[in-house]
Amino acid sequence: MTVRKNVSGAMTITTCWPIASGSVTHRDLFLENSIKLPLLNVDLSLVGFFVVAPSLLVIFHFYLFLQLRGLASKAKDYNTLLVDEAPAASDRRYLRQQNSPMLKRPGKWPIPTRSSR
Known about the structure:
Layout: H1 2-22, H2 26-31, E1 35-36, E2 43-44, H3 46-85, H4 89-97
Antiparallel strand pairs: 1-2
Helix pairs in contact: 1-3
């Protein structure tokens, strides 16, 4: 859930930053007028914006990568658990298609078996 929120936050930041920086004119640069952020409706000094916005984008980007790294680690652990619990590739494929309770409580649930039709 937090990865989804972080991705939507990153999308918002990467969308608002070009809009705000694209609205700066030569006159605004010369007079150092403040810039209004699109979603927050906050006035920010021009120098402050061009220092804060890129640094926030980089920090948020690395935080998102850390979240995705943790998610990849969980997926790798889940795959290892599936290989240990279900040696046959067809059974692993079947378990991945199910809403497997092993993801929530590893080692506590029996493996569901296919019913023959």
